[in-house]
């Protein structure tokens, strides 16, 4: 069986982080080795005390940012701390059920990169739906990546991350990694995983400010890649999309 490092970025998620981490720790038996790395991105609510108390009873590693750096930076911190063959991240808000990590297993032998997509986006406002559609179309056209959902969970061989990590601290970090690792020609697959409405708290990355920051990072990387002679939009690639497997039972 493969080994998996799961990064859990957390910023002000006191209403969901405790139950989610308990559920996640219960997935260890599906992998040869399994580690959970919680990155507290300078939470200002009760999240830090919840995480500390759970770390005393669950096999968690905890990394704390002294100030809030954003989702991309939190995930990058976790990936840099990871030690196992595969790395992924699940948000601390519990919108990805912890048991969904079992869906990666059937693809880990044949692929290097597992991209996931959401089905119905329960709880999304009209603005967030529009922003997501524009973002996906823009990144897909600019970089020749025929991916349906750039901003959801991705699972990578750690060797890919070590070779060409993402540097963005915005929501663009997942798409940026896909673009930067294209030269390695990773074997990619896209699957659907579960998505739940928030149990508590509020979304941190759907604001107009976050969208503008991601837009700047998209533009900057596009300029860098074209100046380097990498015209990705002329050579589009798409992941494999196999038929859905039977639901994993945690």
Structural category: alpha/beta
Q: Any idea what the CATH superfamily is called?
A: Spore Coat Polysaccharide Biosynthesis Protein SpsA, Chain A
Question: How many independent structural domains?
Answer: 1
Which stretches of 5+ consecutive residues score pLDDT under 50? none
Radius of gyration: 17 Å
Give the strand content.
Answer: 5-15%
Query: How would a textbook summarize the main sheet?
Result: 7 strands, mixed
Order of helices and strands: EHEHEHEEHEHHEH
Count of helical stretches: 7
Name the helicity range.
25-40%
Instruction: Report the mean per-residue pLDDT as an integer.
Output: 89
| Terminal-residue CA separation | 16 Å
What is the annotated CATH architecture? Alpha-Beta Complex
Strand order of the largest sheet: 3-2-1-4-6-5-7
Count all strands and give the number: 7
List the main descriptive attributes of the protein structure presented here.
250 residues; alpha/beta; Spore Coat Polysaccharide Biosynthesis Protein SpsA, Chain A; 7-stranded mixed β-sheet; 32% helix; globular
Describe the structure.
There is one protein chain. This protein has 250 residues and is α/β, with parallel strands linked by helices. It has one domain (4-234): Spore Coat Polysaccharide Biosynthesis Protein SpsA, Chain A, CATH 3.90.550.10. 32% of the residues lie in helices and 15% in strands. The protein contains 7 helices and 7 strands, in the order βαβαβαββαβααβα. Strands 3-2-1-4-6-5-7 form a 7-stranded mixed sheet, sandwiched between helices. The protein is globular. The two termini are 16 Å apart.
């Amino acid at each position: 069986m493969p080994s998996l490092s799961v990064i859990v970025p957390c910023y002000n998620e006191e209403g969901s982080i405790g139950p989610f981490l308990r559920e996640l720790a219960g997935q260890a038996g599906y992998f040869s080795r399994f580690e959970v790395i919680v990155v507290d991105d300078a939470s200002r609510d009760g999240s830090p005390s919840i995480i500390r108390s759970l770390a005393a009873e669950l096999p968690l590693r905890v990394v704390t940012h002294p100030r809030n750096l954003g989702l991309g930076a939190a995930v990058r911190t976790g990936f840099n701390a990871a030690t196992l063959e595969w790395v992924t991240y699940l948000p601390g808000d519990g919108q990805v059920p912890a048991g969904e990590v079992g869906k990666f297993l059937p693809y880990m032998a044949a692929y290097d990169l597992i991209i996931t997509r959401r089905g119905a986006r329960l709880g999304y406002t009209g603005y967030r739906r529009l922003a997501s559609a524009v973002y996906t179309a823009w990144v897909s056209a600019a970089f020749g990546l025929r991916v349906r959902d750039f901003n959801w969970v991705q699972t990578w061989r750690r060797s890919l991350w070590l070779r060409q990590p993402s540097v963005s601290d915005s929501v663009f970090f997942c798409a940026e990694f896909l673009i930067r690792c294209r030269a390695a020609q990773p074997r990619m697959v896209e699957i659907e995983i579960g998505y739940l409405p928030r149990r508590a708290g509020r979304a941190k990355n759907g604001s107009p400010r976050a969208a503008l920051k991601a837009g700047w990072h998209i533009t900057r990387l596009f300029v860098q890649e074209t100046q380097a002679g990498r015209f990705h939009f002329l050579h589009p690639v798409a992941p494999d999309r196999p038929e859905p497997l039977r639901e994993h039972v945690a």
